[in-house]
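tl;dr need the bound structure. longer version: we got a ligand (S-adenosylmethionine) that a collaborator sent over and nobodys looked at where it sits. i said id run it. heres the input, straight from their email, havent touched it
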Amino acid sequence: MAVLYIVATPIGNLKDITHRAIEVLSSVEMIACEDTRTSSVLLQHYQIDKPLFSFHQHNEHHKVDHILNILNAGQNMAIISDAGIPGISDPGFLAIRAAHQNGHTITVIPGPDAITTAVVASGLPCDRFTFEGFLPPKKGRQTRIKAIAESEITTVVYESPHKIIRFLEMLNEFCVDDRWVCVARELTKKFEELNRGLLQQVLADFKQRSSVKGEIVVVIAGKNYSE
Ligand code: SAM
């Protein structure tokens, strides 16, 4: 039996990595990562030189067998993603389930993730919240946005910069009253931004920009929240 380590890596700032993550990544036989070029930057920064192989959403099913073969051979290995914690809107779940089913040990090395960073930074209630991940691009999108508009607790959504304005517009269409939101962009990076306020004001702010770039998490307060 072997150990499959699930290791959290920075969501932007290369310094956001734990001592334990570095220790584990330096000790395993092999590392599965989404994009070998992206992960090489991080690993080289910490002088970690290990064999890497790609494990992303397009080869995840196929690579699970490869991961099991490595573990079955008694070799400990790690999974990392391009950012944050594997398994959260990133590959990981299938391999973790298969490793459990085959009697291997799963050890998570906790660290940064965009959800908790954004929800805490938002200053909106974070005692309870729903994580919606990425909304579907077409079918079912409207239904999910309606449900967010109806939610009594905070919701967290991952959104791309080119869809953020349309997302805020649709949310505004379904919200009966104006709603507190926080658009968290480029967290932990040089141009980090927290655009917090009532939905209509935040939407107006984004609409006047010539373009929106970077990675985005939207935090939407529950419908009865006011301040
Ligand atoms: N596994 C990651 C985690 O633990 O948060 C999430 C991976 S998901 C493919 C990537 C999405 O996470 C981005 O499109 C964005 O919505 C969010 N994200 C990741 N890094 C971010 C950052 N530095 N600032 C804001 N959002 C970020």
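gonna send this back to them w/ a short note. The CA atoms of residues 25 and 78 lie 7 Å apart.
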